[in-house]
Amino acid sequence: MAIDTDPESELAAIMADLAAGDGAALHRLIAAHRPRLARLVVAIAADRGARPNGEMVDELVVEAALAVQEVAGAWKPGGAPPWIWARRRVAAAVDRHLGIWADELQPDQHRDVAAPPPAPSTESSTAECLARLGRENQTVALLREGLELVASPRDQLVFVEMGVQFALGDPSPAVTVGALFGMKPASVRQQSRRTRVRLQALAANDDRFQPLASLALVA
């Protein structure tokens, strides 16, 4: 009998086994998707001003997998990967592991990776790209409209650039975006988080913007 090696089918099978209470499925999830889980928890930790070492990343990956396991029965194939779909639950697990982090109270206690010399601003190209994608895709158009309601033009671009760098696998997206816009990485993280929270509130309170809640960029 042929073995189905399609990644999406494999992930769906893992999630179904997790939902059924198969403990071994947790190890399969980590083994198959550790790099993705690691990128997520490192990004979440960075938002809190933390820079976990390799050992802590391993611990956070397990915490993330356990968070996904808790809601495995509600996840449906065909949408966002389960760790992105359950990002808020994963973030809560990371917070529990790290303890309470208050960016506003410790701007100098966690030194950011030295940023490269500031590059020319990409504001015009980012805005043009977002506008073009909005004309081609209804979801992007809705995101753009939502951003215009909750953030300044500058904050919109910082938020979008953070999402782009994260999607590209940048281990220090705030450092990269900070160099592009002449901002401190801590300010980039705080500003991006504020925009995300406002978009989440918009999606929760306005039915027309509800689809934004399922976007990895917003969730």
Q: Tell me the number of strands.
A: 0
CATH topology term of the largest domain = Rna Polymerase Sigma Factor, Chain: A
Estimate percent helicity: 55-70%
Series of H and E elements: HHHHHHHHHH
What would CATH call the class of the largest domain? Mainly Alpha
Known CATH architecture of the largest domain: Orthogonal Bundle
Which term fits the overall shape?
globular
Kindly report how far apart the N and C termini lie.
39 Å
Mean pLDDT: 79
- How many distinct helices? 10
Strand content: under 5%
Write down the Rg. Answer: 18 Å
Q: Main β-sheet: number of strands, strand sense, barrel status?
A: none
Low-confidence stretches: 100-124
Structure description:
65% of the residues lie in helices and 0% in strands. It folds into 2 domains: 7-101, Rna Polymerase Sigma Factor, Chain: A (Orthogonal Bundle), CATH 1.10.1740.10; 123-214, no CATH class. It is built from 10 helices and no strands. With 219 residues, it is mainly α. It has helices spanning 7-19, 24-47, 54-70, 82-85, 87-98, 123-136, 138-150, 153-167, 173-181, 185-205. The model is unreliable at 100-124 (pLDDT under 50). The chain is globular, with a radius of gyration of 18 Å. The longest helix has 24 residues, at 24-47.
